[in-house]
Structures are given as structure tokens and as C-alpha cells.
């Protein structure tokens, strides 16, 4: 009888509202469980690595002089941190890196703006950019030392030489790829070239600029550490070279561990800033 | 009556590395105040080129364009332009998108901002003011684009296939809305479209262009009872089918000539 009732909408839905909510809750629970699993395996790998390394060192499977082991490395870090010696080195290196990637991104973007403004200049500079980009910039290190002295300045300039050109190329490219129709929107209102840049080109390229900032964090660390290898009397790169020269590999490895931690932290900070700035895209 | 848009013997040549080609050949056109004129024609007939010249985005190789009796020399606030898609800026809210024309023409004052708000409300978008474009449907976005064009109060609107990217139902609704709004505000409009039935339903005059090089083949005056009906209803008026077929035949012979 009820089957031939035939009134549309009179029927109860095949799945109740509670049933649908339950499916959603189950989905969230599954996701959470998977996240937890991934995280536990990640931690397990890290602990296993340190445990094996410690064991291998203590049981003399590896040459302790060369490879040290975690408890010695962390003792070294603890000692340097307590004596305050570490902070000076860390401060210098972090300072150089931050200056390197912030200034590199800004300067690179500025050059990109210049060559966007003048298509003629862009054509003229093109081959020079290609040559300079393909060149291993750290090879210029000795020249910078002669020019700017053995210290903070020449290390920063070495870092800039790595970050600036890549930034310029990537950002200029993104300027050129902005949809011509978005530019037309500004032009039909009689917008000037300056307005086209302010209202369209720059905001449209903002995500690219932020993402070069991320790439430049990594690049800046390369520049700074190599720069410090060459000249420094301070900094984590200097600690590595010094440890190498006096054959204190515990010092070398402890510097590496610190670099890994700080570089990751810096990267995460940029990712955080990116997320904050680009919430609506 | 003085025409608000007057094209005198417009000829345009596109020059590229490969060749120079004639896009428009000695084209004359007058559009009168409050008129709604559609340009239809096969692809390559220079419809969009014509709009760009009236808008001042492009200088014709030969000939002169006049808007309100003044020679066109670059874009002005008197001429509004609607593109094929909305091209709203994804980093701006709906209100910020709608008011960009005011920003660019230095009129970001209380009075104009209030008017922008009123226009958004008129288009049923007041709830969307602080949303971002990606949160809106295609039809709503194109309505925002219309508001953006109207905020600077242009007397002339150039419509470059503004309905082509929308689904059929939205397209019909928007035709009604835009044609109605423009008529009510007494704007002059030039519409470029591929859709012959759309051209016949919304316009006072339909101009068929021939292609390569573009020139005017024929101009059809839409009968009074069709043009006074809303676009959606105009399609059901007596004589609409005949008009449609006349335009269709003219288009076919324009295509055959190639």
C-alpha cells in the first residue's frame, strides 16, 4: 500500500541527518589515526637512527674519531651552549643568513621590476643574466673577499650573488605570466603603467615572491656556510672548518646538527608567514 | 541627433614578425544616444579590434574614432568595457573589486563608495561584499564585473561577449539583467557576440560584419515590439524568427565569401 502512495517528498530520506554526521565523524577519525601513524613512524626512524649511531660508535663498528656518536655530539652542544660560546657563532651565522635571503629576495625583485619596466633593458641584459645564472657563484668568493674584506660583508655578498639572480629570473617570469586580461581591466579605466604594476602585476606575483623566499632560505645557507669556510673567524661554518682542522669531528657534527635544526626552523617560519599572507588564494 | 560614437573610415593593420594583415577596411559606424547595437560576424571580422579602438586601447592605422564628439586618445572614464570573463582580482574582496575603477580614477570618496554599495545591492550582491571572487558562481562574478564597469558612470558600454563563458540559463538571466539595467540607466551599448539570437533579442540594431578584412555587410533594425520586450520574452515575439533567419542568411553568405 505505502509503495503506491506516490507523494513526492513524503518519504523519509534514505539516510538520516545523524547517519550522515556519523559518516563525517568516522572520516575525520580515520584521518586523525593516519596522521598519528605517520608521525609515530617518523619519530621511530629518527630514534632508530640515533640509537644505531650511538651503538655503532660505542661498539667501535665505526671510527669514533671520524664519526663520533650522538651522546658525545649532544654533550658538545650542551657544553658550548652552557659556556655561551655557541651563541656568538649561531648569532653571526643566522644574521648572515637572514640578511642574505631577505635582502636577496628584495634585491632580486627590485631588479625584476626594473627589467619589467623597460623591455629594452630586459632584452639587453638577457645574455648576461644567462651567463651569470649558469655560473657557480661561490667561485666568485675570493674576488668578494678581496673587494669587501674577510668578514661579514663579503659573506653576505657571496650569499647575495647566489640568491639575487635566481630571484630576478623567477619573479620577472611571473610578472610576464600575469593574465593580459587582468591588465586590460586596469587599462580600460585609463590606468597608468605604475597603476598596472601596483594593482595587478605585484599582487598577482606575490605568491611567487613569497615562494622564492622559501627557496632562498636554502640558498642563503649554502652561501653563508661556504663564505664562512673561506674567511670567517666566527660562525657555524667556521666551527666546521675549525673542527676539521683540529680533527674534532664531534664539533663538526654538532655544528651540522645545529644547522639542520635552525635551517628547518627558519624554513617553517617562512612557510608560516606565507600561510598568514596568502589565506585568500 | 549627434552620434555618441562615430567611426570614420577606420582601417587597421596588424603587424607581426611573419606578416602584416588587414583587419578592418574603411569602416564607418555611428551609434546614437541610448542605442543598443550588436556586432556579429564570423571570426576574424575584427569585432574585438573595433571595440578596442572605441575604448582607446588601440590606435587605428588610418581613420578616426570619436566619442561624444571628441577624438579618442586613450581610455577614458566615459567608456566602460566588459570583458569575455569577469577577470575579478582573486586577492580582492567583491567590494574592493567593484570599486577598483574609482581607485584608478581617483574617485574613492564617500559618495562614490555609497553608490558602489547601492549598485551591488541592486544586483543582489550585498551579502557578497566581503567575500572573495572564488566563493561566487560564474553568474554572480559577471554581475560584479558589471558593477565594476558602472561605478565610474560611463555613458557608453562596450560589451565583448560578456555572456559567452556562462551556462545557458545564467546567460539568459544575465542578458535580461544587463539589457534592463543599461536601458534603465539610459546607457549606450555596443555588444560583440557570436550568438545571433542573443544579438537579435537584446539590441536595437544588429550589424553583420564580413571577414578578412572586416567591413560592414548589412545592418538590421530590430522592430519596435521586439526591442521593447525583455530579452527572454523577445525571443517569443512574432517576427523574431524571421529576423533571426535574415541575420543568419547574411552571416552564412559572409562566411561563404572566404
UniProtKB/TrEMBL annotation, chain A:
<dbReference type="Pfam" id="PF00528">
    <property type="entry name" value="BPD_transp_1"/>
</dbReference>
<comment type="similarity">
    <text>Belongs to the binding-protein-dependent transport system permease family.</text>
</comment>
<protein>
    <submittedName>
        <fullName>ABC transporter permease protein YtlD</fullName>
    </submittedName>
</protein>
<keyword id="KW-0472">Membrane</keyword>
<dbReference type="InterPro" id="IPR000515">
    <property type="entry name" value="MetI-like"/>
</dbReference>
<feature type="transmembrane region" description="Helical">
    <location>
        <begin position="36"/>
        <end position="56"/>
    </location>
</feature>
<feature type="domain" description="ABC transmembrane type-1">
    <location>
        <begin position="86"/>
        <end position="270"/>
    </location>
</feature>
<keyword id="KW-0813">Transport</keyword>
<keyword id="KW-0812">Transmembrane</keyword>
<keyword id="KW-1003">Cell membrane</keyword>
<keyword id="KW-1133">Transmembrane helix</keyword>
<feature type="transmembrane region" description="Helical">
    <location>
        <begin position="98"/>
        <end position="117"/>
    </location>
</feature>
<feature type="transmembrane region" description="Helical">
    <location>
        <begin position="251"/>
        <end position="273"/>
    </location>
</feature>
<feature type="transmembrane region" description="Helical">
    <location>
        <begin position="138"/>
        <end position="171"/>
    </location>
</feature>
<feature type="transmembrane region" description="Helical">
    <location>
        <begin position="220"/>
        <end position="244"/>
    </location>
</feature>
<dbReference type="InterPro" id="IPR035906">
    <property type="entry name" value="MetI-like_sf"/>
</dbReference>
From TrEMBL, chain B:
<dbReference type="InterPro" id="IPR027417">
    <property type="entry name" value="P-loop_NTPase"/>
</dbReference>
<dbReference type="Pfam" id="PF00005">
    <property type="entry name" value="ABC_tran"/>
</dbReference>
<dbReference type="GO" id="GO:0005524">
    <property type="term" value="F:ATP binding"/>
</dbReference>
<keyword id="KW-0547">Nucleotide-binding</keyword>
<dbReference type="InterPro" id="IPR050166">
    <property type="entry name" value="ABC_transporter_ATP-bind"/>
</dbReference>
<keyword id="KW-0813">Transport</keyword>
<dbReference type="InterPro" id="IPR003593">
    <property type="entry name" value="AAA+_ATPase"/>
</dbReference>
<feature type="domain" description="ABC transporter">
    <location>
        <begin position="5"/>
        <end position="236"/>
    </location>
</feature>
<protein>
    <submittedName>
        <fullName>ABC transporter ATP-binding protein</fullName>
    </submittedName>
</protein>
<dbReference type="InterPro" id="IPR017871">
    <property type="entry name" value="ABC_transporter-like_CS"/>
</dbReference>
<keyword id="KW-0067">ATP-binding</keyword>
<dbReference type="InterPro" id="IPR003439">
    <property type="entry name" value="ABC_transporter-like_ATP-bd"/>
</dbReference>
Amino acid at each position: 500500500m505505502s509503495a503506491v502512495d506516490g507523494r513526492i517528498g513524503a518519504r523519509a530520506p534514505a539516510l538520516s541527518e545523524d547517519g550522515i554526521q556519523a559518516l563525517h565523524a568516522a572520516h575525520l577519525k580515520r584521518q586523525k589515526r593516519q596522521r598519528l601513524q605517520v608521525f609515530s613512524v617518523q619519530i621511530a626512524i629518527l630514534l632508530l637512527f640515533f640509537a644505531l649511531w650511538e651503538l655503532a660508535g660505542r661498539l667501535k663498528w665505526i671510527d669514533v674519531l671520524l664519526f663520533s656518536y650522538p651522546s658525545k655530539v649532544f654533550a658538545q652542544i650542551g657544553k658550548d651552549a652552557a659556556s655561551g660560546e655557541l651563541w656568538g657563532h649561531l648569532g653571526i651565522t643566522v644574521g648572515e643568513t637572514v640578511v642574505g635571503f631577505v635582502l636577496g629576495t628584495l634585491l632580486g625583485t627590485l631588479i625584476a621590476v626594473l627589467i619589467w619596466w623597460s623591455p629594452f633593458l630586459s632584452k639587453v641584459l638577457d645574455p648576461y643574466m644567462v651567463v651569470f645564472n649558469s655560473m657557480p657563484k661561490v667561485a666568485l668568493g675570493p674576488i668578494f673577499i678581496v673587494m669587501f674584506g674577510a668578514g661579514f660583508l663579503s659573506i653576505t655578498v657571496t650569499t647575495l650573488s647566489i640568491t639575487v639572480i635566481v630571484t630576478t629570473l623567477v619573479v620577472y617570469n611571473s610578472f610576464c605570466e600575469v593574465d593580459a586580461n587582468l591588465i586590460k581591466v586596469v587599462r580600460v579605466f585609463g590606468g597608468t603603467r605604475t597603476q598596472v604594476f601596483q594593482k595587478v602585476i605585484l599582487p598577482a606575483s606575490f605568491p611567487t615572491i613569497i615562494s622564492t623566499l622559501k627557496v632562498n632560505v636554502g640558498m642563503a645557507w649554502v652561501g653563508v656556510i661556504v663564505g664562512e669556510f673561506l674567511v670567517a673567524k666566527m660562525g657555524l661554518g667556521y666551527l666546521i672548518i675549525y673542527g676539521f682542522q683540529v680533527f674534532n669531528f664531534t664539533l663538526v657534527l654538532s655544528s651540522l646538527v645545529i644547522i639542520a635544526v635552525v635551517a628547518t626552523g627558519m624554513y617553517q617560519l617562512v612557510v608560516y608567514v606565507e600561510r598568514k599572507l596568502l589565506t585568500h588564494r | 541627433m549627434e552620434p555618441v560614437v562615430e567611426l570614420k573610415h577606420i582601417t587597421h593593420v596588424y603587424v607581426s614578425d611573419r606578416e602584416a594583415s588587414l583587419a578592418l577596411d574603411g569602416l564607418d559606424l555611428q551609434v546614437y544616444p541610448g542605442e543598443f547595437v550588436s556586432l556579429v560576424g564570423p571570426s576574424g571580422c575584427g569585432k574585438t579590434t573595433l571595440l578596442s579602438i572605441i575604448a582607446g586601447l588601440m590606435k587605428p592605422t588610418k581613420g578616426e574614432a570619436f566619442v561624444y564628439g571628441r577624438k579618442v586618445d586613450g581610455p577614458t572614464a566615459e567608456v566602460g568595457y566588459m570583458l569575455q570573463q569577469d577577470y575579478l582580482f582573486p586577492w580582492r574582496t567583491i567590494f574592493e573589486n567593484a570599486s577598483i575603477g574609482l581607485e584608478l580614477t581617483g574617485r574613492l570618496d564617500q559618495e562614490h563608495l555609497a553608490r558602489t554599495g547601492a549598485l551591488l545591492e541592486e544586483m543582489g550582491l550585498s551579502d557578497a561584499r566581503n567575500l572573495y571572487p572564488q566563493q561566487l558562481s560564474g553568474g554572480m562574478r559577471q554581475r560584479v564585473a558589471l558593477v565594476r564597469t558602472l561605478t565610474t558612470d560611463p555613458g557608453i558600454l562596450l560589451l565583448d561577449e560578456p555572456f559567452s563563458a556562462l551556462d545557458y540559463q545564467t546567460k539568459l538571466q544575465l542578458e535580461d539583467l544587463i539589457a534592463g539595467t543599461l536601458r534603465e540607466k539610459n546607457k549606450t551599448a555596443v555588444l560583440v557576440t557570436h550568438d545571433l539570437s542573443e544579438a537579435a533579442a537584446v539590441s536595437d540594431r544588429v550589424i553583420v560584419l564580413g571577414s578578412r578584412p572586416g567591413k560592414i555587410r548589412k545592418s538590421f533594425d530590430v522592430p519596435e515590439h521586439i526591442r521593447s520586450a525583455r530579452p527572454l520574452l523577445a525571443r517569443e515575439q512574432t517576427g523574431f524568427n524571421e529576423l533571426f533567419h535574415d541575420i543568419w542568411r547574411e552571416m552564412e553568405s559572409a562566411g561563404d565569401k572566404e
